[in-house]
Amino acid sequence: MVSPVRIDLHTHSDRSDGTTPPADLVAHAHAFGIDVLALTDHDTTEGWAEAAAAARRLGVTLVPGIEISCRFAGHGVHLLAYLPDPTFPPLVEELARILDGRRSRLPATLAKLRGLGIDIDTDDVRRAAAGAVAMGRPHVADVLVAKGVVRNREEAFDLFLRTGGPAYVERYAADLVAMVHTVAAAGGMTVLAHPWASRHHHEALDRDGLARLAEAGLAGVEVDHQDHDAAARQRLRDIAADLDLVVTGSSDYHGAGKLDHEIGCNTTAQDCYERLVALARAAAAASGRSAPAVVGA
Ligand SMILES: [Zn+2]
Ligand SMILES: [Zn+2]
């Protein structure tokens, strides 16, 4: 019997808010028996080259990706973009705008925390974010942990940093439907990340919302994710089947930055992965862009 190919399509390195450098992330995946790995840092492709070099060295198949901060019907939503041309100007501009929003948000977040009697300065956060292209809430959370204000990132989000929380500051996010189109025009393909994650309240991403996105060209939906319970997974799986969306599963690994998200804790079936790669190939051909290939395939 041939052992199944293990595929994890959603992981983060320290170029965004993971705690592992890209090369170490690939080595970690290899050690955990992952055959196909996607690197999907938030709003950046910074880690792609380092991860690709490590993947070639170790014989891991690497899918270059990005997890893009979007907005849909007033809600923050994460969109996984796979294999887009990272030099496509409209994509470059949107990512720059999102990262700018992240950077300008930090002083406002720290001011809100000061108002709550918690004094953190920018240098503390900069140290926590060493290696990342933008300092963000997870790094603020790390400082709160280091100062003993909270026990872990989870608690920092629950008590202070979550959407609507006492230290929350709104920031720019791309329009979700427009971004599905932009990624396709860049020769890539999109999967909606953890649409029903418990921390968020995505009433907008019901069957009708997902149908709208499928119509816009969304290729798939991340069903098997730690933030979805068994009932949510089943319901999402049914909707995906109904709308002919590809189902994925992934860890959303962040190194030490996220508990209970060990690499490979959820995986994607090989036929689903192959369908996604075929869709990306078709998008690349239709766009005329020189989209990246899967590394080591
Ligand atoms: Zn996410
Ligand atoms: Zn993620």
Cofactors, ions, other ligands: zinc ion
Structural class: alpha/beta
Largest sheet: 8 strands, mixed
Low-pLDDT parts are none
Strand content of the residues, in percent? Answer: 15-25%
Shape: globular
Radius of gyration: 18 Å
Measure the end-to-end span. Answer: 22 Å
Number of strands: 8
Q: What is the number of helical segments per DSSP (H or I, 4+ residues)?
A: 10
- Portion of residues in helices? 40-55%
Q: Give the integer mean of the pLDDT values.
A: 94
In short:
The protein has ten helices and eight strands. With 297 residues, it is α/β, with parallel strands linked by helices.
Describe the model.
The chain is an alpha/beta fold and about 300 residues long. Helix content is about 40%, strand content about 15%. Strands 1, 2, 3, 4, 5, 6, 7 and 8 form an 8-stranded mixed sheet that branches. Helix 1 packs parallel to helix 2 and helix 5 packs across helix 6. The radius of gyration is 18 Å and the shape is globular. The model has no long low-confidence stretch (mean pLDDT about 95). The structure holds zinc ion (ZN) (2 copies).
What keywords describe this structure?
single chain, 297 residues, alpha/beta, binds zinc ion
